[in-house]
Write a structure and sequence with these properties.
There is one protein chain. With 265 residues, the protein is mainly α. The protein is built from ten helices and six strands.
Length: 265
């Protein structure tokens, strides 16, 4: 089976849809929209078409939750907006857009690329099976090693800044490559080696500072649940393709596979 299609995509998208109050039967549409928005190799106009479709979807959803509030995050945000919170209507739509895309894309990639890393490092997988208490630390190492995101969202300098002896002028576009930071040999000895027992604290897979990922605790929990279930229930799980032939999604932001063929036994 394709692990992404059957497992690593459905799990996080169902969770985020339930939290937000989005009908789970719409998840396939969201996957198509999200892929179009994050891809850099799609058809001309696909980004705009997907963004427009999501905007209209969320506009309708907000109106529905305003008329029929429920116990979900969209209803709570609509209530905050209507209670004269600082969000205006367009910011509310943008927040829902971000929560849904970020709430499943990164975790889908963590589960898939983390599974690939473990299946191609059988010694580390055997260690994890022998020491199940190692799982929380293993998730941190897989976040560092596999990097569900290649880079942070765009940054711009407001004044000149010096980094590593190089001065970046004011009003410049800056790309923060978190995957490079997570392989920094000054912070992580032998950084290209997968080591589930290492101290992976300080990785920046979730960003840093005021932009630290709001969903980090949820992503960690989903990772632990997914890896525990996967390797406990499928002791014979193995790759069904040469790792060198696997295709990666054409995106400078997202570090994820297009598919991950596996055998269950």
């Amino acid at each position: 089976m394709d692990l992404i299609e059957s497992f690593s995509f459905p799990l996080p998208v169902i969770v985020i849809c339930e939290l937000l109050g989005v009908p789970s039967h719409d998840r396939d549409e969201f996957r198509a929209w999200s892929n179009a928005i994050l891809s850099e190799g799609g058809e001309p106009g696909s980004f705009r078409a997907a963004g427009t479709a999501m905007f209209h979807y969320f506009t309708k959803l907000v109106a529905d939750k305003r008329a029929h509030p429920a116990d979900d995050l969209v209803s709570a945000l609509v209530d905050a907006r209507d209670s004269e919170d600082s969000l205006d209507e367009r910011e509310l739509i943008a927040m829902l857009f971000l929560l849904l895309v970020a709430g499943h894309e990164t975790t889908t990639n963590l589960i898939a690329t983390g599974t690939l890393a473990l299946l191609t490092h059988p010694g580390q997988l055997s260690r994890l099976r022998a020491e199940p208490g190692l799982l929380p630390n293993a998730v941190e190492e897989l976040l560092r090693y596999s990097n569900p995101l290649t880079q942070a969202t765009d940054r711009f300098t407001v004044e000149p800044a010096e980094i590593g002896g190089v001065t970046i002028p004011a009003r410049q576009w800056v790309v923060c490559v978190t995957s490079s930071a997570n392989r920094d040999p000054d912070r992580f000895p032998d950084p290209d080696r997968l080591d589930l027992g290492r101290d992976a604290g300080g990785h920046v897979a979730f960003g840093h500072g005021i932009h630290y990922c709001l969903g980090a605790p949820l992503a960690r929990l989903e990772g632990e649940v997914a890896f525990r279930a996967l390797f406990d229930r499928l002791p014979g799980l193995s790759l069904a393709a040469d790792p060198a032939t696997l295709r990666w999604r054409p995106s400078s932001l997202i570090h994820g596979l297009e598919a991950l063929p596996v055998r269950l036994r």
